[in-house]
Amino acid sequence: MSSVARSVPLRLIPAQPEAAVRRLHLLMRQRDALRPLFGVAWDNLAARFDGDELEGWAAGVLALADVNAGPSCLIAFWEISRSYPTDEGIAPLIVAAHTAANVCRHAGAQAAAATLRSVAVARRILDSGPDLALIEYGAALRLWIFGSLIVGLATPLRTGVPLADGGIFLAGLLGLAGFVGVLESAIARLRLSRIPQFLVGAIAFSVLALVLVLR
Fold this sequence. Notes:
The chain has helices at 2-7, 20-29, 35-46, 51-66, 71-83, 91-107, 109-126, 130-154, 162-188, 195-214. The protein is mostly helical. It is elongated and about 90 Å long. The protein starts with a helix and ends with a helix.
């Protein structure tokens, strides 16, 4: 009987992972400075979303904490969460938290905080309606004016035929628009750590052009 008992292997039962909500509340108990702001955000969300949704939101906050995003990043995320409309669900907030955590992992806490603040600004702009239309119109008008100046400087020759000159002008604007699109796409694919170097290079070329003009 004893030999049979010794031959039976023990079956290990894996421990259930601790809930993200509980882990988050335990973490906030250790952060005296952040606890009041977290409490306000949590009470606001708890009144609008159910337990499963709050679990995903808490996992997003923990993802930010795990990469040492810092108080400014956490506070920015809580502010976004408080102002986010209930009818759109909590999934976009969870995506924003994990995206900011990924940004923090590769570019630092300041870049992650700036990403979250830009989400709030973009939301206010997108909800503004006529204001957004005016912003888009102003951007298009600015591109048209500066593009016209650049095309006029790049193609100073005139044929004297209005249709031919207009066609050359429009072709130049289309080429310039394509170049701007390609350039912006290339800049958007740069790593955030390369952006300061790119800006320093642009400033250096601007200073050089100013010196050449003033000579």
